[in-house]
Amino acid sequence: MTVSVQTAAEALTELVGAANCTVAAQDKRPYLTDYRGIFHGEAMVVVTPVSTQQVGDVVSWCYRHDVPVVPQGGNTSLMGGAVPDDTGTAVVISLRKLNRVLSVDVVNDTMTVQAGVTLAAAREAAENAQRLFPLRIGSEGSCQIGGNVSTNAGGTAVLRYGNMRDLVLGIEVVLPDGRIYSSLKGLRKDNTGYDLKQLFIGAEGTLGIVTAVVLKLAPQPRATAAAFIAVKNPHAAVALLQAAKIGSGNAVSAFELVSAPALELVLDYLGDAKSPLQHAHEWMVLMELTSGGTDEALHAALLDILELGFAEGLIEDAAIAASLADIQAFWRIREDISDAQTRAGGSIKCDVSVPISRIADFIDAASAEVLALDPEIRLVIYGHLGDGNVHFNPLRPRDQQAAEFLARHYRVVSETVDGLAHREHGSISAEHGIGVVKRDDLRKYKSEVELQLMWQVKRALDPKNLLNPGRVLPEPDDPCAIH
Ligand code: 2HG
Ligand code: ZN
């Protein structure tokens, strides 16, 4: 069944009201490209429902008329998972108007929020209740909780608090046919069969549209200490991580690796920031400790860890934050590396994870292979060493144009880096998801049985393949093998 734009617009306007439905090109534009401006698509209609029921009504109408649906949050994905394709046949459903914090239960340490609440607003609501919502990613001002859930967002606090998957206790989802599955429970124990909510977390909107969740909160730490540390190499960083976990009584809340080219790039981008360290070093770590104890005790623990690191030859230099402003300055440097790469153009992003015990060897091997292609490639390597995930993002040589670099090296670099991670029993997408960028690579890195199971789940929930089609799941080699 083919539906005209006019028919769709009239029907959907009826369901959500004229203020929440648009076909005008200039109004649709922000929903048709991602925030970096890399992916572009088209859509018949963009709707911004104001209630879960409206989302259900729109999806139900689309299901009955065979219209594809693309759910969208803050549009900060790096994988093109929330931008429609260029056929112009889809309806984009933006969740941004479902932006209410529904309740906070301080005794249960939970908070119920709608999908369109930004991560920053969710963190603020928790803070207002003297609690911590621990998910921490650089795009918190724009990204939305629904997107965080749908991509199982990770970030810098995973080593302490887990991924989004670990922070969701209850969920409300609009299913591909428009039915509403509501289980907004704040339970830490519930063994009543399949844990259905997990199906929708990390599914990138291919199985249902997340409209609300119950999130787990943590006590706010009372003390924070941080240091920007020059380490000898990634092996030394891993050894320091072990020492820090033990020496601090498990108080490490972040352990972020930064390579010299990454630091150089971000300082250049920020303009007004300077390196916390006096001299240049090949490798650095931003380590943060938090605890429920006193600042004095935590600083003493930090000093002990650094002393041990120096004594064992792991550390070359360290800058200890003397104030909250110092801590914020360290984080600004770390969190803006990604934007600095976007501005520089010509990066090959590899978001890989391997067991922490293998990560230093992985970085050595991948670096050697990439530099063998061209020693002028800048090895912008950074990220969440504390949980085994690094952003291994080679950047074009200074005198090479982005397009030329990508044409020459994109394929070989991603295949090499992903292949090495895979061989180390790692993942080719640790936290950014699959979207369209990595979809076809799954064929290579997932077993046949895994792919069959993924398609079986997809078909069971979305038999018409209308929810975010063409995302996450590669077309099966043999469609008949999947029923
Ligand atoms: C980060 O850790 C983000 O800064 C973005 O995951 C990483 O842009 C990237 O590759
Ligand atoms: Zn990251």
Describe what you observe in this structure.
By secondary structure, this protein is an alpha+beta fold. It folds into 4 domains: 5-94, Uridine Diphospho-n-acetylenolpyruvylglucosamine Reductase, domain 2; 101-219, Uridine Diphospho-n-acetylenolpyruvylglucosamine Reductase, domain 3 (2-Layer Sandwich), CATH 3.30.465; 222-316, Alpha-Beta Plaits (2-Layer Sandwich); 345-431, 2-Layer Sandwich (Alpha-Beta Plaits). The chain is 36% helix and 20% strand. The longest helix has 22 residues, at 402-423. The two termini are 24 Å apart. It binds (2R)-2-hydroxypentanedioic acid and zinc ion. Zinc ion binds at residues 383-384, 391, 431.
As for the CATH topology of the largest domain, it is Uridine Diphospho-n-acetylenolpyruvylglucosamine Reductase, domain 3
Largest sheet, strands/sense/barrel: 7 strands, antiparallel
Radius of gyration computed on alpha carbons: 23 Å
Helical region count?
A: 16
Bound molecules: (2R)-2-hydroxypentanedioic acid, zinc ion
Percent of residues in beta strands: 15-25%
- Poorly predicted regions: none
DSSP, total strands: 18
Biggest sheet, spatial arrangement of strands: 15-12-14-13-17-18-16
On the 0 to 100 scale, the average pLDDT is 97
Structural category:
alpha+beta
Distance separating the two termini: 24 Å
The share of residues in helices is 25-40%
CATH level 1 name of the largest domain: Alpha Beta
Q: Please state the second-level CATH architecture of the largest domain.
A: 2-Layer Sandwich
Shape: globular
What's the domain count? Answer: 4
